[in-house]
Amino acid sequence: MLKSLYISNYALIDIVDIDFHSGFNIITGETGAGKSIMLGALSLILGGRADLKAVRDSSKKSVIEAVFDVTGYPALKEYCVAHDIEWDDAVCILRREIAPAGRSRAFINDSPVTLDLLSHVAMQLVDIHSQHQNQLLTSAEFQLQIIDNLAGNSRLLRDYAKRFLVYRNAVKRLHETKKKIEQNRSDEDFTRFQLEQLDELKLKPGEQEQLEHDRDVLSNMTDIKLTLNGALDALTNAGSNVLSLLGEASDYCEELAKILEDSDNISERLESARIEIQDIAETLTAYDSNLQADPDELEAIEERLNTIYSLEQKHRVDTVDQLIELREALREKLDQLENSSYTVEELEKEARRAKASAKELALELSARRREEALKFEEVLRATAVPLGMKNLQVKVNITTGELTSTGMDKVELLFAFNKNQQLMPVGGTASGGEISRLMLSIKSIIATKMKLPSIIFDEVDTGVSGDVANRMGQLMKSISENIQVTAITHLPQVASKGNAHYKVYKEDDDTSTYTRIKLLTPAERVDELAVMLSGSTVDEAARANARSLLDGVK
């Protein structure tokens, strides 16, 4: 349940810090006192849009904080833990802050969270039912949710949603594949032409680099030959070449070895060096013999490179390896075309299997909905008739169609409020007051199955009076036996049913007007009810009527 609400620096509120009670809480106050301001602040906890204009003092931040008792809500705990939100088994604290610059921040148990996370958690803790939400009753989606909630279809809906997603993805893959095949088929001749061009070249990995190297060698043959000859002259050909000088050094060192005992095999090492130099010279000689300027070979290399460069430019790639990848992709594309009928057939089978799997749960959903719809018709009529709708008729019309994200059913609530009146959708036959009473009746029916700690009714009793108002108050009180109910009301018949009564009022000082809220004492409550019964004048007769209302509830 909602344990407390703290609001600071919001609209006419400087600071409000109020504790709430379990059971049935009543909030009253004159029109314009600020009841809607408090609900507006609380709606920020539910993810509502932050408006900088609502910040009272633009130099300070605005803070809205709600504390909930969450004892015995394992599903909410599981959700929070799964999203790395700090969890306390006793209380859950939701906070929204609006900075002077307009930036909004959200917190759960003092941990910063996204607004989506705050909203998701808040909607599992409190439901604010205002007058404009009565129009939800005309929504086909909301009508379906009513039946699903009562039928306890949440787990089945989750399982169905997974299967429907598999089916939808299978259909998407099928459509995309068919589209791709059609596109490939229209390009088939051109694709074959491109592949033939690439196959004809017989490209090899690394070929371009090798050709470019060979071209450079052939183009610079004269310089390369001069360089090789220079190296060979230094090693073997010139009068004072390296090999002859090494031979002389070796002879001298061999004579030294006869005299010096520790010559450290210098002569042998020089001979090894001479052999290595001789091998290098022979290698260079072989290079020199093999390098021949061949204009025809150079022309052939240039021609092949130009062909490769042209194809690279045409296909917008940079290397032969990329052309090879393109060649294989074109080949795969044509192979897919040849096997397209088999591919489409397999995807169609996959889509049919996925559809059958989803339809299996859709049929189970449909059966549960139809069974629950019959019960709902009777219970809703029994609940709403005492609220001044004695001739009410209710029909839940369920039609079956194609698979959607919620199954294969379309639910439509049909009503008649007078004898001999044709059953019609609620939007075309009900007044605002009748829709309010229907919504209150529906909320009371699903209250036992709502996994919500708290529900707030904002003037849901507008437009009724007398005995109907008394019955609406009694209905809200009965809902409070299962969950915490807070009702904002102008009707004394409803206000008298509460376990705790709060008054919202305005207070002035020399410079400003403030919205305040306080928990009424028993005596103050009698006076408040007396004002609601008789107007601004409170006398003993009005107080007596107020006490009578309270005694009647007891």
Features:
554 residues; six-stranded antiparallel beta sheet; six-stranded mixed beta sheet; elongated
Side by side, the strands of the main sheet go: 2-1-4-5-6-7
* CA distance, first residue to last residue: 24 Å
Low-confidence stretches: none
Number of helices: 19
Structural shape? elongated
Report the C-alpha radius of gyration, rounded.
44 Å
Q: What does this entry look like structurally?
A:
There is one protein chain. This protein is of the alpha/beta class. The protein is built from 19 helices and 15 strands. The protein has a 6-stranded antiparallel β-sheet with strand order 2-1-4-5-6-7, covered by helices on one side. It has a 6-stranded mixed β-sheet with strand order 8-12-13-3-14-15, with helices on both faces. A hairpin with a 2-residue loop joins strand 9 and strand 10 (407-416). Helix 5 packs antiparallel against helix 13 (340-384) and helix 7 (207-219) runs antiparallel to helix 11. The longest helix has 45 residues, at 340-384. It is elongated and about 145 Å long. The two termini are 24 Å apart. The mean pLDDT is 85.
